[in-house]
Amino acid sequence: MFGGKQVVVCGYGEVGKGCAEALKGMGAVCMITEIDPICALQACMDGFRVVKLNEVVRNVDIIITCTGNKNVVTREHMDKMRNGCIVCNMGHSNTEIDVNSLRTADLTWERVRSQVDHIMWPDGKRLILLAEGRLVNLSCSSIPSFVVSITAATQALALIELFNAPGGRYKQDVYLLPKKMDEYVASLHLPSFDAHLTELSDEQAKYLGLNKAGPFKPNYYRY
């Protein structure tokens, strides 16, 4: 149960925003840590307190890292956490929580069940560590088949493009998918919701400087 729980989400980027909104919707009291003043201002204007982890670490029930950084939650932080605090990572690989600092002779690990460990301090305090600091959205949950369908369709179209592309079009580099391709995949999945797209008139398309068939946003646009 998340209702009333004190939760800190470290990082208010794309992952942190979604995580914080979900927690808020479930009734949690959610706080944010941020290094970026723009993301911090977004969090404030979305109704979240922006804090330093050291300021609140003794009183929170759940800490979730979503920064993409390393050592966001350190042994010093974990030494101060209350009994029963849940610590997990939704950010970058397994670097955000300093799990190696917990593998010491003074602490005891107890496997509760798959992907859930109790870390016990000499005074009896226990922290609950999920997935040993790895990504909980991959380790402790499943991805909805509909989301997999969208992702797989996009990957399939990208592979078809690479296969059919003339030699020299693509180098060994990372390329953004064309907006047109993303829009096509989205359009394939809209019938599942019985969604009906509005179509631009010729006059409206000319006014916006768009092709009626898309793409509808520039490549730099972030949804």
UniProtKB/TrEMBL annotation:
Cofactor section: NAD(+)
InterPro entries in the record: Adenosylhomocyst_ase-like_sf, Adenosylhomocysteinase-like, Ado_hCys_hydrolase_NAD-bd, NAD(P)-bd_dom_sf, S-Ado-L-homoCys_hydrolase_CS
GO biological process, any: one-carbon metabolic process
GO cellular component: cytosol
Swiss-Prot/TrEMBL keywords: NAD, One-carbon metabolism
Iron-sulfur among keywords: no
SUPFAM superfamilies reported for this sequence: Formate/glycerate dehydrogenase catalytic domain-like, NAD(P)-binding Rossmann-fold domains
PROSITE patterns: ADOHCYASE_2 (PS00739)
One Pfam family, short name: AdoHcyase_NAD
Domain S-adenosyl-L-homocysteine hydrolase NAD binding: residue ranges: 1-143
Gene3D superfamilies linked: Adenosylhomocysteinase-like (3.40.50.1480), NAD(P)-binding Rossmann-like Domain (3.40.50.720)
Domain of life: Eukaryota
Membership in a protein family: Belongs to the adenosylhomocysteinase family.
Entry protein name: S-adenosyl-L-homocysteine hydrolase NAD binding domain-containing protein
High-level lineage: Eukaryota, Metazoa, Spiralia, Lophotrochozoa, Annelida
